[in-house]
Amino acid sequence: MTYLLPILGVLLSFVFVLITKPKSKEHFKLLLAFSGAFLLALTVFELLPSAYQNSNPKTVGVFIMLGILLQIFLEFFSKGAEHGHVHLDSEKSSFPWLLFVSLCIHSFLEGFPIENHDTIIYGILIHKIPIAIILSIFLLGSKIKLSNAILFIILFASMTPLGTYVAATFDFASEYFAPITALVIGVFFHISTVILFESSEGHKFNLRKLAVILVGISIAYFL
């Protein structure tokens, strides 16, 4: 299930969009807010204490900051797709390589902590579903060939399990597991906080979004 859940989450999200054909991502903002709160809470409750417990605190801090900077760099190419924004020209029919590569790097890295932290897979899964839905809306609404869109989604879905497999199999991954995990914590911090900040439109109070955020944090606490 560790390898299967992330794949199913992305593929079923794509099938959902293919069948229902939603025209707008606005309907998924509450799900996106929930996923951001849930992922952030799991990162704070599980990954962060483990990282500081098993490594030099200064080193952990450095790699967390590097993870934040890495995600900022990747978003120059993904245009924010990791947190629910796809600012690309839907009229283009060429394969979006920069978006694809940046999303794959992000997904590959987030698979590493799953090897030693079972519950983080639920945070990654809940994070992937709204992102996969929004990405699928873009791909299917663009002039990209359906076969290329399907290939994009399949490869994107396989990246997180590939990261988990590498972490479980290769010696270098075991040797550098702590700094890589700290790097991923930084990535998660950036993505989840951006989602939460953006979920408050115009910084107006929204009771429904506050409620789903609190639910996400509470579920993560009791996992």
Describe this structure in words.
- By secondary structure, this protein is mostly helical.
- The protein has one domain.
- Helices cover 75% and strands 0% of the residues.
- The chain has 9 helices and no strands.
- It has helices at residues 4-20, 29-54, 57-78, 97-110, 120-141, 146-169, 171-175, 177-198, 207-222.
- The two termini are 17 Å apart.
Compile the SSE list and pairings.
Elements: H1 4-20, H2 29-54, H3 57-78, H4 97-110, H5 120-141, H6 146-169, H7 171-175, H8 177-198, H9 207-222
Q: Structural class of the secondary elements?
A: mainly alpha
Number of domains: 1
What is the distance, rounded to the nearest whole angstrom, between the alpha carbons of the first and last residues? 17 Å
Query: What count of helical segments does DSSP give?
Result: 9
From the spread of the alpha carbons, the general shape counts as: globular
- Roughly what fraction of the amino acids lie in strands? under 5%
